């Protein structure tokens, strides 16, 4: 039996490969064999860690979110002025390239599948709730610092997160009327003019 650290690394390797396959081919096309190939392991190894494809997919969505938060740990440790930090948070979530773009593609698949799957809806509510809470906390800090207008920080966070999500979906769909640059500017103006004071 492998050492615990090897098991943890192997599990993460499989989950990372699962996210890559979901981002590239979509959830409906996901095959355990494709995940195994992407991870450089056998299908038996994948099934050692995840008995079913459903278990693998659910774990991959959690992994995707945790990876996003880990890449943004600096947000919780930042000493920047809160409104400036809010702009940086939004910028870091744009579906621009690399890991961020991949994460958005995985989230889009989760949302689509979550319409039919109550377990994925719970995953979304738990993990996505953490993202909304972070945004609300930064808005509240900006209000406390006197740089954001008064109002319910949760409501403002929901407005901002909803806008980011909707615009990101349009960017992912390559809408001619919503480029990444347009999304970036729209979000910047929202934070500056509608959250800031």
UniProtKB/TrEMBL annotation:
<dbReference type="InterPro" id="IPR036271">
    <property type="entry name" value="Tet_transcr_reg_TetR-rel_C_sf"/>
</dbReference>
<keyword id="KW-0678">Repressor</keyword>
<keyword id="KW-0804">Transcription</keyword>
<protein>
    <recommendedName>
        <fullName>HTH tetR-type domain-containing protein</fullName>
    </recommendedName>
</protein>
<dbReference type="InterPro" id="IPR009057">
    <property type="entry name" value="Homeodomain-like_sf"/>
</dbReference>
<dbReference type="InterPro" id="IPR039538">
    <property type="entry name" value="BetI_C"/>
</dbReference>
<dbReference type="InterPro" id="IPR050109">
    <property type="entry name" value="HTH-type_TetR-like_transc_reg"/>
</dbReference>
<dbReference type="Pfam" id="PF00440">
    <property type="entry name" value="TetR_N"/>
</dbReference>
<dbReference type="Pfam" id="PF13977">
    <property type="entry name" value="TetR_C_6"/>
</dbReference>
<dbReference type="InterPro" id="IPR001647">
    <property type="entry name" value="HTH_TetR"/>
</dbReference>
<feature type="DNA-binding region" description="H-T-H motif">
    <location>
        <begin position="31"/>
        <end position="50"/>
    </location>
</feature>
<keyword id="KW-0805">Transcription regulation</keyword>
<feature type="domain" description="HTH tetR-type">
    <location>
        <begin position="8"/>
        <end position="68"/>
    </location>
</feature>
<keyword id="KW-0238">DNA-binding</keyword>
């Amino acid at each position: 039996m492998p050492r615990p650290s090897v098991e943890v690394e192997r599990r993460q390797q499989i989950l990372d490969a699962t996210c890559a396959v979901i981002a590239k081919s979509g959830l409906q096309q996901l095959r355990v064999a494709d995940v195994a190939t992407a991870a450089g392991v056998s299908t038996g190894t994948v099934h050692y860690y995840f008995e079913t494809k459903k278990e693998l997919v659910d774990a991959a969505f959690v992994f995707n979110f945790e990876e996003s938060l880990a890449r943004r740990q600096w947000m919780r440790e930042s000493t920047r002025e809160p409104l400036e930090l809010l702009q940086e948070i939004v910028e870091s979530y744009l579906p621009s390239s690399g890991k961020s773009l991949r994460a958005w593609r995985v989230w889009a698949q989760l949302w689509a599948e979550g319409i039919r799957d109550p377990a994925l809806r719970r995953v979304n509510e738990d993990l996505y709730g953490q993202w909304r809470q972070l945004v609300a906390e930064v808005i509240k800090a900006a209000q406390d610092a006197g740089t954001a207008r008064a109002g319910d920080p949760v409501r403002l966070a929901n407005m901002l997160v909803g806008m980011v999500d909707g615009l990101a979906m349009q960017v992912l769909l390559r809408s001619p009327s919503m480029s990444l640059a347009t999304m970036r500017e729209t979000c910047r103006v929202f934070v500056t003019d509608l959250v800031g004071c």
